[in-house]
Amino acid sequence: MSIIKKEMSPTIIKKPKVDIAPELLELTKTMVQEESQVIVHCIISAPWYSELGIRIWPTTYLYDNNSDHRSELVHFENISPYPNWQFIEAGKTTFFTLFFSGLPKTVSSFDLIEEIPESNGFELTGIERNETDVYYVRF
Description:
The protein is mainly β. The protein has one domain. Helices cover 9% and strands 39% of the residues. Strands 8-7-3-4-6-1-9 form a 7-stranded mixed beta sheet, with no helix packed on it. The protein has a two-stranded antiparallel sheet with strand order 2-5.
């Protein structure tokens, strides 16, 4: 734990003078406008008679239906990453969230695809884009 002595208290600089090259300033404006995320909240239930193993592969993407754009999975919450399994008890439900890099503004619909070398990957197609880029999916 750090302690700030009273005589060393911080001072707020109200109007600092900063010189930024015009080309860098323009580049940061573009980057701020393009930075976004797509959030997919998921709900999944195990059947009443058996537990269910789930995990997410890093090869899970969002694909624009009208171009070759692919948004990458950048973060996830409450689900195990491949190769680890997370088990849901029989009859129980769990929630997890996937975070993807942003979609271009021109995207009106997209597919959510887990590309894996096994037969049990998932694919949700034709998801209509909304203005918040936050989606809810039930598996």
